[in-house]
Every structure is written in C-alpha cells, then in structure tokens.
Fold this sequence. Notes:
Helices cover 58% and strands 11% of the residues. It is of the alpha+beta class and 444 residues long. It has a 5-stranded antiparallel beta sheet. A 3-stranded antiparallel beta sheet has the order 6-8-7.
Amino acid sequence: MEFVSTLEAFWEQVETVFTTGFLGQPIGRGVMALAILVVAFLLRGLVAKAIAATIGKMAGRTKTDFDDQVVFALKKPLTLLPIAAGVFFAAQALGASGEVDVFIANLTRSIVILAIFWGMFRVIGPLLDLLKGLKSVMGDTFLDWMKRIIKAIVFFVGGAAILDVWGVPVLPFLASLSLLSVAVALGAQDLFKNLIAGMTIIGERRLAKGDWIFVDNVVEGFVEDVSFRSTTVRRFDKAPVYVPNAKLADNPLTNFSRMTHRRIYWQIGLEYRTTSEQLTTIRKAIEDYITSNDDFAPAAEVSTLVHIDEFSDSAVTIMVYCFTKTITWGEWLAIKEQLAFFVKKTVEAEGASFAFPSRSLYFEKLPDGFGPEAFKPPHDDDDEESEEGGDTQADDVEEEIPDKHVSRSTKASRRSGAKHGKGPHPHGRGVEGEGGDVGGDEGE
C-alpha cells in the first residue's frame, strides 16, 4: 500500500509540472507558444517577399523608379512583422497574464515600432533622390549630409518611441543630455570647428565625391567622402588620408576636376647654330600642328602661343603654350606624347638639333710654370746621350732646388726648348711664338 501511495504522489508531481511548469501555465501551452515563434521566425522571409511582391505589382504599373526603390527598401523591415505577429499569437496561446502579459505586449509593440522606423530609415534615400533640382543646385555632398541628418533624427525619434513603450521618461533623459552636452562642448571645440568647416565646404561647393583636389602641404588625391568631422581623400598611391574639415576650409584648395582644359607648357631649346630660317620653319610647323589638331582647344577659347621666347645660356628657346580639350590625365599624356614626337621629327627634318646645358671656359693668362708641355718624340741619339750622361743628370736634378710654383714638367719643357710667351689667348692655348702645343710643334 505504501508503494502505491508513493507512485500516486509522484504522478501528482508530474501532473503539476505539465499544468504549471511553464511560466505558471500548462507545459503544453508553452510548447505550442514556442512552436508558433519558431514558425514565425522561419516564415518571416517568405511573408516579407509575398507582401513586397504584392506591393511591387502595383508599383510596376508606374513609369517612375521611385516606388520600386521604396519596395526594395521595405523588404527587410517587413521581416519584423511576422516576428511581431508570432510573439503576439504565442502569448495568446500561452494564456499569459500579469507581468508576463505586460512584457509580451511591450515587446510586440517595440518590434512593430522598430519595423516602422526601420522602414522610414531606409526610405530616406529614395525620397531625397527625387530632389533632382536641389541636387543640381547644392550638389551630391549636400544631399549626403541631409540624408545623414534626417537618418539621425529618425533613429533618435524611433529610439525615444521604444523607450516610451517601456515606461522610460524621455524628457528628463533629454534634459540630462543637455547638461552633459554643455560639458562635452567645452572639450569638443575642435569637433564643432570641423563640423562648421564641413558645412562651409558644402555650402560653397568647394569639392564633391570623386574630385581631384590639391591642398598645399596637406594632401593631394581624389575625394571619397565628406563626413561631419573629416574628409577622406584617396592619394595616388591608394592610401586614404583623413583630413580635418578645418584644414580644407582654412587653406587654399585647388580642384583640378573643375578644369575646363588642361595645359601644356614647354620650353624647347635649340642649338645656337640653328639658322633663322630653320627656327621660323620649326615654329610654324608646331603652331600649325596644334591649331589643326582637334585634340587641342581652339585659340578662340584659350591662349595658344608658339614663339621664339629667349636666348638662354645654352640654347635658343621656343615656347609652346597650349591647352587640350580633355582634362583626363591619361588622354592628356597621350596627346602630349604625340606632340613631343612631332616636335622631335620636325627638328630633325630641318637639320637642327636640341641643345643641352654646356659651359666654355676662357683663360686670359696662365700662371707662370703652368703652361702646357710641348711633346718631343724620343730619338736614338737622345737615348744614347741619356745613357752616357744619366748619372750626371741625376746628380744635377738632386742638387737643384726647384723654384716656387715650378713643376718638374716645366723644367722638362725648358730642357726641350719650349718657350713661354706672354699675353692671353681666347682658347687657352699657346699661339705662334708663345710656346704651348703650337709653339712646340713649330720649334721642332
């Protein structure tokens, strides 16, 4: 009997678990509620696609792309609606009451609010794309800033709505943030300075995404993004540079992407022996090539100059000053290359040559003892005499004390009969009767 009573007591415990084992509700209801949540989670994508397809059919009848973009933007937020419905029906199946029922109700409302504001957040882009007139006036950068500001507002309002659902007071929270913002503002002056500088850049339309800019001693490259604090510039070596907006606002900024034409400026140096007729022919050929080529901008739009410019140290200079129609760097390089080939071909065809830096030195008078030594070929008689009197000459050389600034080569020149004259020579060489190479040759 005791064993049977023990089994009955155990079975009562099992029945108690099944009746009140899940949040005070029968466990069967809990299993059903959990199944509803799993099904809602698995079907969220199919339900969202079905709703989007229904709306998409209506949007496909219109000629604009705006409604199609809106439908695409709402696809992800629509996936939250089946989850919210699953939470609601799971609560109904569970029969929750009291605090559990309040919690599930707040959770359902929070999911619905999140879906609504998420959809608004994603629709902001297509809505601003409709403002084509404003885009042409203010530029893409201004619209990007507007998009970010509006998204921040939507995010803030949606967060406040969800907090209100859970009973969190928003106004006192905002008041505390306002007091905190004063303290933050005192330590974030640079942040606000860059923010105002960014607004100035956008208002003046100094740059836009994709522009090639140059700021002296700061950066040169292509603009990738203009944010609230800094601007991202991609250098030519593909390294990103994050420049504070104040740097771009306070320093002179060159925007190469807004050039109307691209310049070619050359100084072509020809040798001084080039005749006037050759210079005229070469100059005229270059000018005709530029004016007749469609790659170059006409002289009516820009300055086009080809002239003999100056007499430089080593050359007669022809100045070539013209502009190409394209501003693309690669195309500009190709046009300039063809012009270089034509100039070289024209100069060579006229029998002229390009000059290179050179310098000539003229000696008015050589110091005594530094004149060039005359060359005297050796003879057999000299060799015999040198062998017989070698010891005596060696003794004389050892006993002789050289004069100041007189080299051994000078004494050898004197023994060979070379004479050193006075007076300058334009080429730094000796003339007849003055020694040197010429005098030495004649003396022989």
